[in-house]
Amino acid sequence: MYCPFCGSGLHSQNAFCSSCGKDIKFLHDADKPGTSGGHETTMVDELIHKYFTEGHTYEIILDLLTTKHNISMSLGTLKRRLQDADLTRRTNYTPIATVRAAISEEIQGSGKLLGYRAMWQTLKQKYSFTVRRCDVMHLMGELDPLGKEKRSRRKFVRRSYHSNGPNEVWHVDGYDKLKPFGIAISGCIDGFSRKVLWLKCGKSNNDPRVIAQNYIECVAEFGVCPMRLRTDCGTENGLMAALHCSLRSEHTDEFAGAKSHMYGTSTSNQRIESWWSYFRKQRSQFWMDLFSDLRERHLFNGSYEHTNLLRYCFLDVLQKELNEYKQQWNTHIIRPVRQSRCPSGRPEAMYFLPNRFNGRNCGFPSSTQVLSQLESLMPAPATPEGDNDQQTHYEQLQRQSGLTPLLQWESAVETYITLKNMADI
Question: Is 177 within a domain?
Fold first, then answer.
């Protein structure tokens, strides 16, 4: 047995179709002895009404009845049944006042995104209205002129980022493009000024103690904690979130305490995620190509020994470049963008002089004593056994070989290859 409305198979004696939810009790009643044929007539009328309100032509309705429901009917019979049901497309139009009320209700929700053609279809199917499409177009222009103007541009409207001032929201995230080579990067950016607050590389950006230490050092440097902190749902952010909520628990604003931290998806953390694209184009792509070249030359295979040696040779050089890029970014000019609701200028100036950019400092002063207490309670990042011994061994080999200090990437590459051969790894 099949549902006469949606064509789905019926495997039980349910009173309603499990697919479309329509009442199908009449199907079971029809199987009982002594049941009249009135139910069958009602079923056919409902099917005709359904397909007519969906906007199908007469020929399509007849084919659907035959193909899906095994109901044969002539065109004349179909027209007669439509006339008996008072179903027409060009007469008996629904009053304009009723149509206007329905459109007003629809545009209060997601219907405000519909054009007049889609709204006309909605009125026919959802409300069973008989209405001209041109009338719907004029009514929508009258009731929602701003929405009509936006749709006429045929342009997707995105939500724009808005911030009241520096330290309202700090965005924190990790950068994993260099992780295959043993180097992880952590960054934080202010939402209003786009000032990079920290940009650090290390062995891991998944250790909660490392991320929390970056946060404590940043708050101590600027003497202020942000109104809100935004991160993704990674476990590495848990300790930092707890520290931030603890610092904000003393305040009385609407975002005090636990509300001061926001978890969200990485794609929603748009300020830092957007900034990573600049970082890759202007900096990290060079390092990705450099390390990939070492791997293609069979000088790096991703093993524990190779990763530790590469980190020893390149970590300080990379951190030096990160510091330079951070300084360069914070002093460059961000050009004005028409769609943006945030100011333009140099991040450094926008962060420290928000009054010049129609903003205000939204942060809260942090006590050095409280920060020291929190830092003393925080455990130190774990160092796996053998890492310190290996670093000491590499330092000895470097002194023996008389290699130059690791100041540039060229010297780091030379040191890496030489120590790799000396250590026979």
Answer: yes
3-state DSSP call for residue 187? strand
For residue 250, the SS3 value is coil
Dump strand ranges (E) for 276-371. Answer: 364-365
Which tens digits make up the pLDDT trace of 276-299? 999 999 999 999 999 999 999 999
Query: 303, 301, 234, 297: which is closest to 263 by C-alpha?
Result: 234
* Count of Cβ atoms closer than 10 Å to residue 120 Cβ: 23
Do 83 and 110 fall within a single domain? no
- Tell me the C-alpha to C-alpha distance, in Å, between residue 319 and each of 26, 167, 200, 327, 345: 76, 25, 7, 12, 26
Q: Which residues contact 170 (CB under 8 A, 6 or more apart)?
A: 188, 189, 190, 191, 197, 226, 228, 229, 230
Tokens 């950068």: give the residue.
175
d(CA 8, CA 20): 8
Burial 287-296 (b: 16+ CB within 10 A, else e): beeebeebee
> What single DSSP character describes residue 284?
I
Domain that holds residue 116: 96-152
- In the structure encoding, which two tokens stand for residue 30, read together? 């029809």
Q: How many helices and strands, by DSSP H and E, does the chain display?
A: 17, 7
Q: Is the pLDDT of residue 390 over 90?
A: no
| Token reading at 345 | 């200028």
Closest CA to 163 of 243, 254, 271: 271
| Residue 33 near residue 53, CB atoms below 8 Å | no
**For residues 111 and 346, what is the distance between their CA atoms, to the nearest angstrom?**
41
Statement to judge: residues 123 and 222 lie in one domain: no
Measured CA angle at 266 (ends 262, 270), to 5 deg: 80
Q: How far is CA 56 from CA 44, 48, 53, 60, 375, in A?
A: 16, 10, 8, 6, 71
- Concatenating the DSSP letter of every residue in 2-40 gives B-TTT--B--S--SB-TTT--B-HHHHHHTSTT--THHH
Q: Tell if the pTM clears 0.90, that is, is over it.
A: no
**Using CA atoms in the order 223, 228, 233, 238, what is the torsion angle rounded to 10 degrees?**
40
Main-chain dihedrals φ then ψ at residue 164, nearest 5 degrees: -85, -15
* 37/173 same-domain check: no
In whole angstroms, give the CA distance from residue 342 to residue 392. Answer: 49
- Is the same domain home to 261 and 351? yes
Instruction: Tell me the per-residue pLDDT of 226-238, one tens digit each, with 9 for 90 and over.
Output: 999 999 988 899 9
